[in-house]
Design a protein that fits this description.
The protein contains no helices and 11 strands. By secondary structure, it is mainly β. It has 2 domains: about 60 residues, no CATH class; about 100 residues, Jelly Rolls (Sandwich), CATH 2.60.120.220. The chain is elongated and about 70 Å long.
């Protein structure tokens, strides 16, 4: 509808659903795509809404690890050991879930740390005991490693971490 205060333009369009996208219409939709969109290169870049081939908008829940595969680390010591290395300047690790399995013959406590601050803690019984943490995802400080440490040195505690890297202002 034209408004004299804003000029004589009108938002019109005649491209129906399932036709190739083109022209000048003001869109309230997006692009149909079977695959997950790739990351944009910079803040302020244009992004399209993501829809499936049936016109349903695809929304990924916060905490989705995206395409980062889970990482499996082995702990054997009471000292801090990096499970996920510090990601670099202006980047932070967001932890989605953690699975701990103790393959050793000794019970041990497993501390998961934001650098040196314990964020998740649990006991892992001997010979296959362990725990799973799946709470609200948490973000570490910028450019800090996700560390793990044991209460007692053992031969083999596996820590599987689902996470993603996020820019931090």
């Amino acid at each position: 509808m034209a408004d004299a205060a804003f000029g004589a333009g009108e938002a019109v369009g005649n491209v129906p659903h399932d036709d190739p996208d083109s022209g000048n219409p003001l869109k309230g939709g997006g692009r149909a795509d079977f695959t997950r969109p790739t990351e944009i290169s910079a803040d302020g870049d244009r992004v399209n809404a993501w829809f499936d081939r049936y016109g349903r908008q695809v929304v990924i829940p916060w905490g989705d690890p995206g395409t980062t595969p889970p990482d499996v680390s082995t702990l054997t010591t009471t000292s801090n050991a990096a499970l996920i290395a510090a990601p670099g300047a202006n980047l932070a690790i967001v932890v989605v879930s953690i699975l701990v399995t103790n393959m050793s013959a000794t019970l041990t406590r497993v501390d998961i740390k934001d650098n040196t601050t314990i964020r998740v803690q649990g006991a892992a019984a001997a010979d296959g005991g362990g725990y799973m943490w799946h709470g609200r995802p948490f973000k570490l400080a910028t450019n800090v490693a996700l560390n793990g440490a044991l209460s007692v040195a053992v031969t083999d505690v596996r820590v599987t971490t689902s996470y993603y890297i996020e820019e931090s202002p």
